[in-house]
Amino acid sequence: MNPSRTSHGRTLACAAALALLLGLAGCSSGGSGGQATSPPSTAAAQRPASPAKLIIESPHNGQVVKGGGVQLRLDLRNAKVVAATTTNIRPDRGHVHVMLDGRLISMNYGLQEALPKLAPGTHVLQVEFVAADHLPFDPRILTQAAFEVRQ
Amino acid sequence: MATVALGLVLITGLARALVEVGSWHGLLDTSFGRTLLVKGALVAGLVAIGAANRFRVVPALRAGRAGLQTLRGTVRAELAIAIPILVAAALLSELPPAAFVSQAAANRQPAPAVVVNGDDYATTTRVQLTVTPGGAGPNRFVAKVVDYDTGQPVTAERVSLRFSLPARPDVGASSLDLKPAGEGAWQGQGSQLSIAGRWSVSVLVGRPGGAVTVPLRLQTRTAEPSQQVRVSRTPGQPTVYTITLAQGGSLQGYLDPGRSGRNVLHLTWFDPQGRELPLSGARASATAPSGAADRLSLQRFSTGHFVANLDLAAGRWSFTVSATSRAGSSTSAKFEQVIR
User: Fold this and answer.
1) B19 and A32 Cβ atoms separated by less than 8 Å
2) How large is the ipTM?
3) Same domain, yes or no, for B201 and B232?
4) Does residue B334 share a domain with residue B232?
5) In this complex, do B12 and A22 lie within 8 Å of one another by their Cβ atoms?
6) Mutation target among A50, A113, A135 for the B interface, most CBs of B within 10 A
7) What is the rounded distance in angstroms from the CA atom of residue A15 to the CA atom of residue A7?
8) Which residues of B touch A33 (CB under 8 A)?
9) Residue B276 to chain A, least CA–CA distance (Å)
10) How many CB contacts within 8 angstroms connect chain A with chain B?
11) Which of B93, B242, B264, B269 to mutate: most A Cβ within 10 Å?
12) If you placed Cys at A59, which of A63, A148, B26, B192 could pair as Cys (CB 3.0 to 4.6 Å)?
């Protein structure tokens, strides 16, 4: 046995263990993304997974729309849209949040709507099937399409 | 190499401790600080044993002056110290950082009180009456009696308070004699403000030249309900704040995506049964990391669901939200989120 090598190995292992320990202490707040007024209790409430599949039929990704009038048409499978807002949620019941360029523009209890008149240029549409309590499922049922509006 | 790594670990650990502890008070007076102290002492012990190994035991082994027995002993000692360090680290991961605890203590509101001022009809005497806590029930009354013109404490022989509730003639009038507390202050305790409402309080100040009466109007303070906030954090999901409302029910708020840039703030009110609570209106304001507060433009998406589109810079944001139910009761809540 080479005592020198062993010693170096052990000192390194010691340093690694220390790093791990100090890192653990650091984790105490590293994981906190936000804080609330007193007394905040943190609970990782498990969100249900949903079998839903949400597809943007129109405008499809890369579509060029002339004139600015855009009709949104969605296809939702394995789930139903319901109007109720409640904390008693079901994985296959919910509604659709429609976001255009990062702004929530509507909350749909149907699968079709006319989007507001859009300025020429590229726009990003995001639609999400959310539970009846307005919170996302886990994983999120979120899809998006980028389309271009031309005069 | 190992010494450099150890040095780096100690420096980064120290930097982290400075951020999370923040002050001597945080180090000495909070559970987090004390646990960190214990852990620091243990780590120092571990480093000392490591150094002894490196600089004494190993050279001694090389020179044949010591046997493996010595090394075994120091390894056992290291293990004996490492295990409590693990326990301390686990404890630290569960405790709120001292800096946060200190901040929370600093944010705590001072003892609530109701303060009313008045003077007598002939403008000779001014009275400032402080009622603590100022709600219906037992209170402490402190009356500061000063000269109307000079603001100097007046020499009074006696000061008493007489209470009546004009809106409720069936509630009998009562009185309380105050005792001198020095510098023109008179104090006493009692439960004369028996029910919530707008009370009429007459302060009778007996001065050597005669008595004066200072009429005051006092609205009892409605107790601010303590708010319970549950924060749910799940990877890939927005951070969700569920605030239990004093009147029953809950407010659920979340920022999507909760990162700097464009965000959507969702606010949904639920009744105690978890159904959407129909609201007649809702208001919200956001306080930016700079301290600037702005009223948010809320859009109603359903009877109890409101949304605001926001542009958020990185930093700690605070949201104050209030709503009035269709039944007429008001609720308010507050939550904070760090945007990265």
Assistant:
1) no
2) 0.71
3) no
4) yes
5) yes
6) A135
7) 12
8) 233, 239, 258, 337-338, 340
9) 5
10) 207
11) B93
12) A63
Structure tokens at B271: 């009744």
Closest-CA residue to A68 (of A76, A78, A59): A59
pLDDT tens-digit map of B163-197 = 998 888 888 889 999 999 988 899 999 988 888 78
pLDDT (tens digit, 9 = 90+) per residue, A111-138?
999 998 889 999 999 999 999 999 999 9
CA distance, residue B178 to nearest chain A CA (Å): 37
Please enumerate in sequence order all residues whose Cβ is within 8 A of that of B171, keeping only pairs 6 or more positions apart, or say none.
B164, B165, B194, B195
**What is the band of A24 on the pLDDT scale with cuts at 50, 70, 90?**
very low
pLDDT in the model for residue A28: 36
Best mutation target among B11, B85, B109 (most A Cβ atoms within 10 Å) is: B85
pTM of the model: 0.50
CATH class name, domain A53-150: mainly beta
Pick from B219, B251, B275: which residue ends a domain?
B219
- Where chain B has pLDDT below 50, the residues are 109
Q: Which of B196, B219, B242 is the last residue of a domain?
A: B219
Contacts of A25 in chain B (CB under 8 A): 13, 16-17, 36, 39, 88-89, 92-93
- Give chain B's domain count: 3
Which CATH number do you get for residue B286? 2.60.40.1930
Comparing C-alpha atoms, which of B277, B151, B47, B286 is closest to residue A11? B47
Q: B137 and B69, same structural domain?
A: no
Calpha distance B340→B67 (Å, rounded): 55
pLDDT band at A17 (very low <50, low <70, confident <90, very high): very low
Q: Domain segments of chain A: what residues? A: 53-150
Which among A15, A99, A103 has the least Cβ separation from residue B6?
A15
Distance, in Å, from the CA atom of A38 to the CA atom of A31, rounded to the nearest integer, reads 18
Q: What is the mean pLDDT of residues A12-34?
A: 41
